[in-house]
Specification:
The structure holds two protein chains of two kinds. Chain A is mainly alpha-helical. Chain A has 19 helices and five strands. Chain B is mainly α. Chain B has helices spanning 2-15, 17-39. In chain B, helix 1 packs across helix 2 (17-39). The termini of chain B are far apart. The chains are: A mainly alpha, B mainly alpha.
């Protein structure tokens, strides 16, 4: 020790640091598990952008996680599942992990980041027809690059690329999809390099991937600690009471439907098509109705060429490899609205065929609500963003799924 | 005066082999703590939703 004081001091420092990191990790996880129920109603950004809180929520048997996109967030209403079940009326609450413009590749990374915490867990994957019509004139005109950037998380991407729980094949497919979003990823040169290695199947890139794997794992661990720190900092600086109020009550679904439908009709007063008032400006620029079948070809091309189908399949493979038990909760097409937009019902049905052709091989329960696709008040627009009444249908399914009563 | 006393205090410790290791360890840990304070905080913010003009 007297001959090598620097080496000894350095080793002691490193071990102290390691002990502090491990200790902080355990402390943070314990605190997150204790407070997660109380943190849910606060809609913290860290629930969306991080992983720590989601992991804590997955450990709680009275929390049902629902992952999705704008169909979960666009209409803020008491019928929205996270508000409807906020007082645990039937014994559980719902967390919506969603924001506008979440792409399937983003969700795939989100699930990859949760890794083994998903094994055997009931979760809900929410989708809507509108997600599969991206970037096309006359339909849903989002910009995938913008949507990706808006929901990008370095932590999730690192977790996905360096996950020991996923096969190299699926990481290769995720990387190929990520390669379309270089403008967002290039701010992190190491991540860009890792994606380049993973998106190729050549032996050289494969070897390079395993050579950089320790560095990737180290960076992932640093990001995990930062994620924990953000949550812990919030808990330290706010008075959180971990004892949440739970009010058991039976739900009168018929009465709830009637109230929600009445509210929905009030909020669609500007037009005869059941489109939400705040969305009507979009349709106002198109002269409706358009000639019958005039947009059939455009609909077919737009739907069948969407990159989202490829990424949706990747997402399902990720869930399968991680052993999750997801319910795929789709939305019905808004048939009457599409018809006045010049798409015949037969053509519209391609969506259901495509959806089932991708999802059915995974043998995961899928609810498509097809029986409601002539109900003009189920959705607020042609993308099938959920209406107030639509939410009540969702809530019923979520309740049945949580309690193991979902009819096949 | 107090600087001289402090210097003497550290010099005395530093001449002892064990004290030297303790001081060095504290020094290294202080550097690590400083680095964590300066660069440790993550950035989890994402760009806000931008209306795209349709």
């Amino acid at each position: 020790m007297s001959r090598t004081p620097h080496l000894t001091a350095a080793l002691i420092s490193i071990f102290t640091l390691l002990a502090a990191v491990i200790g902080f990790n355990y402390y943070a996880q314990a605190l997150e598990r204790r407070d997660v129920n109380a943190l849910i109603p606060l809609n913290l950004a860290q629930m969306e952008n991080g992983v720590a809180l989601q992991r804590a929520a997955l450990q709680k048997p009275d929390i049902l996680m629902v992952y999705g996109s704008s169909e979960l967030t666009l209409v803020s209403t008491p019928y929205q599942a996270n508000q409807f079940f906020s007082k645990y009326p039937t014994g559980f609450t719902v967390v919506d992990v969603a924001s506008l413009g979440v792409l399937s590749v983003t969700l795939a990374q989100e699930f990859a980041a949760l890794g083994p915490d998903l094994r055997g867990k009931k979760i809900v994957l929410s989708i809507m027809p509108g997600s599969f019509f991206l970037n096309k004139k006359y339909f849903i005109e989002n910009n995938p690059e913008h949507d990706f950037a808006m929901n990008f998380s370095r932590l999730r991407t690192y977790e996905a690329l360096f996950s020991p729980y996923l096969s190299f094949g699926i990481k290769n497919e995720i990387s190929q999809s990520l390669s379309d979003f270089r403008s967002t990823i290039r701010s992190d040169p190491f991540l860009t390099f890792a994606i380049d290695q993973t998106s190729s199947t050549s032996i050289n890139h494969h070897i390079m991937y395993y050579l950089i794997w320790p560095l990737g794992e180290l960076q992932t661990e640093i990001l995990r600690l930062q994620d924990h720190f953000e949550v812990i900092l919030y808990i330290w600086t706010h008075a959180i009471d971990p004892n949440v109020q739970k009010v058991p009550q039976s739900i009168d679904w018929n009465a709830t439907h009637q109230n929600a439908l009445a509210e929905q009709i009030k909020n669609t007063s500007t037009n005869p098509y059941g489109v939400e008032n705040f969305m009507w400006w979009y349709f106002d620029r198109i002269s409706l109705p358009e000639p019958t079948g005039s947009n059939d070809d455009l609909y077919k091309r737009t739907l069948l060429n969407s990159q989202e189908w490829t990424d949706f399949k990747i997402l399902l493979i990720v869930l399968q490899q991680l052993g999750a038990k997801p319910l795929i909760l789709s939305r019905p097409l808004n048939v009457p609205l599409w018809e006045v937009m010049g798409v015949t019902e037969n053509t519209q049905d391609i969506f259901y065929d495509k959806l089932h052709s991708v999802a059915d091989p995974f043998k995961m329960p899928l609810v498509d609500f097809r029986q409601y696709d002539h109900d003009k008040y189920f959705s607020i627009d042609q993308g099938s963003h959920t209406s107030r009444d639509g939410w009540v249908y969702m809530d019923q399914i979520l309740d049945a799924y949580y309690h193991g009563q979902l009819q096949p | 005066m107090w600087i001289k006393r402090l210097t003497n205090f550290f010099t005395t410790i530093y001449t002892n082999p064990t004290g030297r290791v303790v001081l060095l360890t504290l020094y290294y840990l202080a550097i690590i703590a400083g680095l964590i304070l300066m660069y440790g905080r993550g950035n989890f913010t994402t760009p806000k939703f931008v209306y795209q003009g349709f």
